[in-house]
Structure formats: structure tokens, C-alpha cells
Specification:
Structural class: alpha+beta
Strand content: 15-25%
Distance between the termini: 34 Å
Strand order of the largest sheet: 8-11-12-13-14
Number of helices: 15
Order of helices and strands: HHEHHEEHHHHEEHHHEEEHHEEEEEHEH
Amino acid sequence: MDDQELLRRRMHAQFGRPEGAAAAVARSSAGVQAQDAAAARLALRARGVADPAEPGRALAAGEVVVLPLMRGTLHLVPAADARWLLGLFAGRNLAGGARRRRELGLTEEVCARALDLLPGLLEVPRSRAELVALLNAEGVGIDPAGQAPAHLMGYAAAYGVLCRGADIAPREPGYVPLPPGGPAPADPAAALALRYLAAFGPAGPADFAAWAGLPLAAARRALEAAGPAEEAPGLFAAPGADGPPAGGPAVRLLGAYDGYLLGYRDRSAMLDGAFAKRINAGGGVIRPALVADGRILGTWRRERGALLVEPFGRLPREVRDALEGEAAAVAAFLGGEAVLKLLRAAEARHSGDNHA
């Protein structure tokens, strides 16, 4: 298949399901990147969650949780899947953070003491600062001012002691006990590979390895065990995956760190290299993006009652038409109306850098 067909199929796999519940979207998306809570909400919206209250409701009800999983990054996943996903990634993530924990004074003794105490401190949702203060009151000795609290929460999450639930204050996640979860699949790695292909396919082993943070050999084994359908040489899809419907372009305004932008090793088909730094800004920053039929065509932000879209070039008429409806949906989800404004390059340079 050519790049145009490949991208249309990937776009349909990511955004082609009319689902309304956060847990269903998290499952069909193989997890939603969630190190930025506002961006995670936008990712859920782009995949079918129309009610802006749904993400918070689902977190408060314990239907979804947030854990460090793929690539050691926070992901929002169905609570039923949390423990078997931890089984795939916790050991790797713990090993990857060992040196930094030692640098922060989180010795094996300190971490073990914290793990003993934390279950008794989670009778109500607690902020990270509250948990550290309570642990220090018991003599654990954690520096509350630096990065040690975040690394300790990641350590406890890897051991299945806690997870992030609903926010307990604006931009303040609450930590709660990790729910029991559901039964694990017979082959968790193959199950995850199948979900990845359903959400990102057609894709290859190197794509799955890059997205999951797994060695290529392990990714190959998982894909082989999943039994995918080969759509083109080296490219696979989930069995029974349907193609995109005929019609106008599928257009989405994606938030920062969206999983679609991080789901493949090679992004050259979706993003012209001349504009790569306007999306991958450096330092791990992935900016919000305008995507049409799988191709990244610009960036966007919300500013003073307007949705400002900065295209990389002239947008086709059919994309501009579809963008009107998408912008209205984003504005409604974020609360209130917002006028869509397409910026020219000169305007973009002088309009600030306050990204959504």
C-alpha cells in the first residue's frame, strides 16, 4: 500500500470508533498517554469521549487508573487491565529508575519502609505531598522538595501498591490503592501486541517495540504470538480490522503528547521532516497537532477565546471544512465557544507560545 492509504488506515484505527466511555476508549487505544492530565483528556475526546466530565468520573469510579507502563511513561488504562500490564513493564521500569532513586536518597531500605506504610495511608485519596508528609512523620526521611516524591510514587506503583486516580484539586492527582483488576490473558505480551495493532496498525515490529519500550526481539515474539494479518511486507494489522470508510478527510486536533504521534518508530510518512521540530520541540515536548487522514499538517493552541491553528502550508478546502466542525467539538469539550482562526506564518511568530 502507498503512504496515503497507510496513513488513512492508521487514522481510522486510532480515531474511527464511536465510543463514549473512557474505559472503552482506553482499552481500544491500548492505553492513553497521561503524563499531562489535560492532554490525556483531549486524547480521550479525539477517540470518542464527548462528555468532558467522563474522564474524571471514570477515574473517580475506579474504572480507569493511571500508571507508569509503556516506555516508563504514565498511561491511562482500564482498571481491569492494570495488574497484568504492570506484570509486563514494572520490572523493566524499576530497573531503569534504580540509579536515579539512589541519587535521590531512595535507598532499598527507604523504599521498603515506604511500601510497608503506604497501604495504611490510602484509606482516602491522598496527594503526593500528603503521602510524603505522612511517611516522614513515621521517620522514613524523603526530601519533599525535589524529585524523590515522584520517583517514590513510581516505585510504589510498580509494586502494585497505588495508582493515580481522580484529581483531588486542580492539577493535583490523588493517589489511591491499585484495584484488584481482572484476569490476566494467557499471553500478556501477545494480548498487548494485538491491542497495539488494533489501535495503530498497519504497523511493524519496530513500531511496536518503540511504542512499548521493549527490545525488538521481544516485540517480534509478541507479534508472532498474536497472529496478526500481514497487510503489506513487514506491516501487520489485527485480524478482522476494517478499512476507513469512503468520504471526506478525517480531521483531528490532537493534544500534546498524543499517542498517535508516539506510536511509530518512523514518523516520516505522517510528518514532513522540514516541520518535525515544530511538533517535536525538544526536551521530550510533543506539541498539539492538526492531523488530516493521518498526516500532520500543523499545530494549534487555545488562546483568549480562539482556537489558533498554524498550518505548515495551505490546507485543502475539504480539510478546512472538516476543521470547522472539529474545532467546534474541541471548544465545546474544553468549555464554551472558541472562534477558529488559521494563522499565517508571520502571525504565528508574533502570537506567543502558549500551547494547549
